[in-house]
Amino acid sequence: MASDAFASRPEHKFSFGLWTVGNPGRDPFGEPVRPRLSPVQLVALLGEVGAWGVNLHDNDLVPIDATAADRDRIVRDFRHACRDHGLAVPMVTTNLFTDPAFKDGAFTANDPAVRALAVQKAMGAMDLGAELGARIFVMWGGREGTETDGCRRPDTAIQRLREAVNYLCEYSLDAGYDYRFALEAKPNEPRSDIYMATTGAYLGFIATLEHPELVGVNPEVAHEHMAGLNMTHAVGQAWEAGKLFHIDLNDQVIGRYDQDFRFGAANPKAAFWLVKFLEEVGYDGPRHFDAHAYRTEGPEGVKDFARGCIRTYLILKDKAARWAADPEIRELVAGFAGSSQPAPPVGRYSPAGASAIKSHRFDRVALGARELFYERLDQLTTEILLGVR
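Predicted structure:
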């Protein structure tokens, strides 16, 4: 792999969570099939496959009931392992979905004590991340939802969520942590319905916060595809708003449970458009693979999975460059932007401009008759992806 044209380099900023390569293959219908590796062992594995960074939930690293002495020892050993294997810790998050205390949600739970516990746990995770050098804090509300809407009004849940995010922003500022918060949407699972089901919903929510400048989004391929949505469109909206603070790369068959497949494993064409967009706009944040190896795999298969995520991204990056350089594609794309007939510009509103648009005579028949050749473009794209162009 070291001499491979598609091998990882630090500037690619590829990262994995401890929970991804550390997943033992357990699912609701079966027990673990792989040995559980320690955080130090997982750091070594990621160093071996060429990752740049390692991300974590608080309890991926430090057990929830660890003593202060145990916590300090675990963190010290982890920091040494990251240093030895050249891994950064760009992002941390907190687990507010596994412990039974959060069965009715965390920040949105009906019990005020649960909501306070969730804030306490999040602040502890922020302390841990700051100690490890992280500057991104992802927030996924895995239990922030309902099975029955009789339990609380949705506007009440949003108000509680806003209160918690505002509180944590203030804590970050007070502690001097310089965090950027990235909110992660998901339509359902493990709750029947999760509040803030889409990236667009979170973008609307951010504008209502006390410190919207600190808060962005963390779109995930699988979560958008679960709802049948277009991940590249969600990312494009986030990017245009200046809110793409982090991204989770994996794959998913539309309409299924959260599968967390290897990046590009299910929808390589959709993955291509996403990579093309990220590279064209110059996204320079972490490219985080929030995915799991198949349950059929052992420890070596997990390495194959991790290398596959990296390799697929870099192959698609190369395909995107080929697409942009292809003469026929360039000619087609240039033609799309051209005007088929004279027309007044829209631009910024002015009374004179509005008058010009209102009085202009458009040839609607000619506009409707214009052939766009999108079929040809899509076929050329397919041929590039299939390696025959």
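Summary: The domain at 10-325 is CATH 3.20.20.150 (TIM Barrel).
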